[in-house]
């Protein structure tokens, strides 16, 4: 990538200098900082993604290796090295890249090589052709990259399943060592259509131990044991739902003496969804509400977009900055509209709930100490006019990721939304077209009925899936999509079935997102996976990924990759009228 960048910059600058020397100082200033726009290689990674210092070195190194291995003759290397050095000294904005590139090149390149004219000419032609068309750096780079891609087809040619050495190096490292497994959890359940049914907590662990469950609103304060061999399920009254606007005391508190994963499920009538509970350590002070409503709000009191805040400290001041697609929220005799601010103070176990006919996505929550945030839709009419509950525990802003493989879930119709906290530029690829999109701060971009996408965002974003069955109409759920940075190499998770109505057929699935070559190393319940329901592949950053679906039975399951290659995991299940989906777990980076 850097090699291309360097080459383009060089040619570009020469063109400018020759054409109009006066422009040199002024024109580049008007354009975006090259470091802030995606510059892609044949495999397609935005440059900004590479500037993430945590993953930078491994990516650049492997890119150069890839390039060396697949594209360049020995004889071309020295020349390119020279071009890179020469170019970079001329352009101060690429200082950082220069440093890294030179360092990496020195490591990777062998000296004593000859020059190669064809390669250089090919590149120059591309750039000169493009220069004629538009002087915007951004456009030129896009076109140039497209040219390269056309000439050399997709990145899959660069690295295939067989080329494992390079792929192993190219793994996006997970954010950190800490996971969504923990000992202390605070959570809440958001209001659904009605209250006919139950709420459930499911707890899984890798060792035996005991947990305390405390729900102040119902007077529950009990201790129970958890076994590594079973899913511990706990039925909770629907009265625990956050169901009135404003402050209530509806927190659910779980504290265990061993690390556990906790999942929450709402089974109220046919309105069902589930979520992964984040442990206390993962909570943050800044969140963005993500929800789902139809473009045209329905004239029904139940289709609300909603969110809930759960306080865990003695006293927390919280500022809510509303974003709403329409309407006004009345709270305590005050009217709140778009961009209005509401300040509240919550004490431990208190919750704050709001819902609205219009979409609240993009509403910001800023707290003086860490809180938990749930968000979703009371009853969503995703497709065909039937209500579905949607609910997730939201990842705090500080733990969001940037690179995603967006799977279409098996036997499903899905939408997804990319929610931007700050303005971002996203490279999207759907296995046939690369399209760059800009998303403004606190806005989202929605895709309907897609098949498969890869996303590379210049800044962290939240991605939510909204899926219902392809053959059934009323079973939609919402699931937070783990970014590649969130992938883990093993998960222990429950597949559950406490639907209020046991309508058939019922199916339970696992969607695995993994680098294709690492697929063979997966072990589900200690066995090789032989019976895939479906697989599809897509390339991200020259790496071939597979999206695999496996059908599962109800119960406790464990999946791992033998070589500790991280992968993403979404669990979903549905019967005729109801469905749930949730991510099985995340890897996150906890500050010491
Ligand atoms: C690049 O390296 C030079 C010299 O080692 C250093 O002064 C400069 O700060 C570095 N630039 C960046 C952006 O890292
Ligand atoms: C160059 O690109 C910019 C931004 O995409 C566009 O607004 C402009 O019309 C283009 N100019 C030409 C000559 O194509
Ligand atoms: C470009 O195409 C050539 C010829 O098909 C192939 O050998 C080479 O690996 C390709 N390079 C890239 C970077 O795709
Ligand atoms: C719950 O019970 C434990 C002891 O079992 C006690 O320490 C704690 O204060 C109780 N919590 C509440 C909120 O009642
Ligand atoms: C919360 O706000 C109140 C009133 O503005 C202030 O007195 C208090 O110090 C704040 N507490 C925290 C924890 O920020
Ligand atoms: C809300 O709280 C923030 C931060 O404490 C403060 O800056 C702002 O003035 C408050 N706004 C209102 C409307 O009370
Ligand atoms: C990919 O996106 C392009 C442009 O939006 C669209 O024309 C094409 O049909 C899509 N292809 C697939 C496989 O979804
Ligand atoms: C993406 O394209 C590759 C190569 O054309 C193909 O093998 C793969 O099945 C496609 N994936 C999807 C999801 O269409």
TrEMBL record:
Signal sequence extent: 1-19
The keyword Zinc-finger is annotated on this UniProt entry: no
UniProt xrefs under InterPro entries: IgGFc-bd_N
Native source organism of the sequence: Mytilus galloprovincialis
PANTHER family hit by this protein: IGGFC-BINDING PROTEIN N-TERMINAL DOMAIN-CONTAINING PROTEIN, IGGFC_BINDING DOMAIN-CONTAINING PROTEIN
Residue stretches making up the IgGFc-binding protein N-terminal domain: 273-573
Record's keyword annotation contains Oxidoreductase: no
Name this protein carries in UniProt: IgGFc-binding protein N-terminal domain-containing protein
Domain of life: Eukaryota
Entry keyword set: Signal
């Amino acid at each position: 990538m850097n090699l291309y960048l360097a080459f383009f910059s060089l040619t570009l600058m020469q063109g400018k200098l020759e054409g109009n020397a006066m422009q040199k100082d002024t024109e580049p200033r008007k354009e975006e900082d090259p470091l802030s726009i995606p510059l892609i290689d044949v495999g397609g990674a935005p440059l900004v993604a590479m500037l993430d210092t945590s993953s930078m070195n491994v990516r650049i190194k492997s890119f150069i290796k890839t390039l060396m291995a697949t594209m360049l003759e020995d004889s071309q290397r020295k020349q390119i090295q020279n071009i890179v050095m020469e170019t970079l000294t001329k352009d101060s904005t690429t200082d950082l890249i220069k440093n890294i590139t030179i360092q990496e090149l020195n490591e990777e390149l062998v000296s004593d090589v000859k020059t190669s004219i064809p390669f250089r000419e090919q590149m120059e032609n591309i750039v000169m052709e493009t220069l004629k068309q538009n002087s915007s750096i951004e456009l030129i780079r896009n076109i140039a990259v497209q040219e390269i891609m056309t000439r050399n087809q997709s990145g899959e040619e660069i690295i295939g399943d067989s080329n494992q050495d390079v792929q192993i190096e190219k793994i996006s490292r997970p954010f950190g060592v800490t996971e969504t497994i923990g000992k202390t959890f605070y959570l809440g359940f958001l209001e659904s259509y009605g209250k006919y049914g139950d709420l459930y907590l499911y707890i899984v662990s890798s060792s035996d131990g005991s947990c305390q469950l405390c729900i102040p609103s119902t007077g529950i304060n009990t201790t129970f044991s958890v076994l590594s061999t079973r899913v511990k399920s706990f039925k909770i009254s629907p009265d625990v739902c956050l169901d009135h606007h404003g402050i209530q005391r509806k927190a659910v508190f779980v504290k265990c003496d061993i690390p556990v994963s906790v999942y929450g499920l709402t089974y109220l009538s046919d309105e069902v969804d589930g979520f992964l509970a984040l442990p206390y350590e993962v909570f943050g002070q800044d969140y963005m509400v993500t929800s789902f409503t139809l473009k045209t709000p329905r004239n029904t009191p139940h289709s609300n977009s909603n969110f809930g805040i759960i306080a865990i400290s003695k006293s927390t001041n919280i500022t809510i900055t509303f974003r709403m697609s329409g309407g006004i929220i009345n709270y305590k005799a005050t009217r709140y509209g778009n961009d209005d601010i509401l300040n509240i103070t919550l004490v431990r176990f208190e919750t704050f709930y709001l819902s609205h006919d219009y979409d609240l996505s993009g509403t910001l929550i800023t707290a003086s100490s860490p809180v938990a945030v749930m968000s979703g839709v009371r009853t969503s009419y995703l497709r065909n006019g039937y209500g579905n509950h949607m609910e997730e525990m939201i990842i705090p802003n500080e733990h969001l990721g940037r690179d995603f493989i967006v799977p279409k879930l098996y036997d499903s119709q899905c939408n997804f939304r990319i929610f931007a906290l700050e303005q971002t530029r996203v490279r999207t690829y759907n296995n046939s077209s690369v399209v760059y999109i800009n998303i403004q701060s606190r806005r989202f971009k929605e895709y309907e009925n897609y098949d498969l996408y890869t996303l590379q965002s210049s800044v962290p974003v939240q991605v939510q899936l909204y899926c219902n069955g392809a053959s059934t109409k009323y079973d939609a759920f919402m699931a937070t999509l783990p970014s590649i940075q969130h992938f883990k190499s093993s998960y222990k998770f429950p597949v559950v079935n406490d639907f209020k109505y046991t309508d058939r057929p019922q199916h339970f699935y696992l969607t695995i997102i993994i680098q294709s070559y690492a697929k063979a190393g997966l072990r589900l319940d200690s066995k090789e996976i032989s019976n895939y329901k479906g697989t599809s592949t897509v390339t991200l950053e020259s790496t071939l990924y597979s999206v695999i679906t496996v059908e599962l039975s109800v119960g406790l399951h464990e999946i791992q990759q033998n070589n500790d290659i991280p992968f993403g995991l979404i669990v979903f299940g549905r019967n005729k009228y109801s469905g749930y989906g949730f991510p099985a777990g995340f890897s996150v980076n906890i500050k010491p």
